[in-house]
Design a protein that fits this description.
Glutamine Phosphoribosylpyrophosphate, subunit 1, domain 1, 310 residues, binds aspartic acid, alpha+beta, four-stranded antiparallel beta sheet
């Protein structure tokens, strides 16, 4: 028997501390808590890690505070294209969608793809939308994902692109993601990630979140991971799988492997990177190299949430 544990993130694209009001931060904390409560209800009832990850992420997809589902970033066309994936550490089954435009909760669709046996594992664009609709999932018009906050971020990023000041844009205007990793009482691990991606991203651009091994990974032998940050770098480093490989074959601990990837391997790339992860013993890590990361943990000891460094 394992001690059930859940870790989540709402992305490392945080609002700079200097611009964060106490009321706004309290709102983010309440959102994180609601997600943890949903996932924890599954684990505390003896449910599987996969279901806990799905439940926790679905809450954040519905919450306009986060860049996933309702509240997703706008692409360069002023539309939304969503990416998501999930992986079951017990079976190594996984499901993934990329550039979906009409699936209300991408995490529910990828969980079903994984349940069905992961063939197909990954569906993109119109094919993903069609499969979800055909299989009875809630579908929405693309405008459902829009919020005034993300629209303002799109205008800001476009203005910065014209002025050549993109690099100085706050992380919160550029990106965000949600994710979760869980260990259930039976000792199984799972992880999932869901995102609207980068503000003003090129139409058709796909990040790391739906790429198994880059933004999401789970294997009962080692760990479960959900990442956030500049997806192109995570794909090039195959980051989540690399942490697993360092643990499995390199003998590193989860803390050593994830610190090395976030703080050493990515350090020169100004990636804006973070992750939440846990290992089969229930050890958790939440490293990031940005000013903060919306994050939290649920365990028998209770629920904790954080945004910036303590
Ligand atoms: N990883 C996401 C992407 O590249 C963005 C993020 O996590 O903030 O699409």
């Amino acid at each position: 028997m394992s001690v059930p544990t859940l870790v989540i993130h709402g992305g490392c694209g945080v609002i700079p501390r200097a611009q964060m009001s106490a009321a706004r931060e309290a709102g983010f904390r309440a959102s994180l808590r609601a997600s943890l409560e949903a996932g924890w209800a599954v684990l505390a009832g003896g449910g599987p890690a996969m279901a806990a990850v799905e439940a926790a992420i679905a809450v954040m997809e519905d919450d306009p505070n986060f860049n996933a589902g309702h509240g997703s970033a706008f692409n360069a066309d002023g539309a939304h294209e969503l990416d998501a994936s999930i992986m079951d550490g017990a079976t190594l089954r996984a499901g993934s969608v990329a550039s979906t435009r009409r699936i209300r909760n991408p995490i529910r669709v990828v969980a079903e793809l994984a349940r069905r046996g992961a063939d197909p594992l990954m569906l993109a664009g119109e094919g993903a939308d069609r499969w979800a609709a055909d299989n009875g999932f809630a579908m929405v018009e693309n405008g459902y994902f829009a919020t005034d906050w993300r629209r303002a971020a799109l205008e800001e990023i476009r203005a910065r692109a014209r002025a050549g000041t993109l690099a100085a844009a706050p992380e919160s205007e550029k990106h965000g993601t949600v994710g979760a990793a869980a260990l259930d009482a039976a000792g199984h691990l799972a992880a999932g990630t869901s995102t609207g991606g980068y503000t003003n991203k090129m139409v058709g651009r796909v990040g790391d979140s739906p790429i198994i091994g880059a933004g999401t990974w789970a294997d009962d032998r080692t760990c479960a991971i959900s990442a956030t940050g500049k997806g192109e770098f995570f794909i090039r480093k195959v980051l989540a799988h690399e942490i697993h490989a360092r643990m499995l074959w390199g003998g590193q601990s989860l803390a050593e492997a994830s610190r090395a990837m976030i703080h050493d391997e990515l350090s020169g790339w100004a990636a804006g990177a973070g992750l939440v992860a846990l290992d089969r013993a229930g050890n958790t890590v939440m490293p990031y190299d940005t000013e903060g990361m919306y994050r939290g943990k649920a365990s028998p000891a209770g629920i904790e949430v954080a945004v910036y460094a303590a």
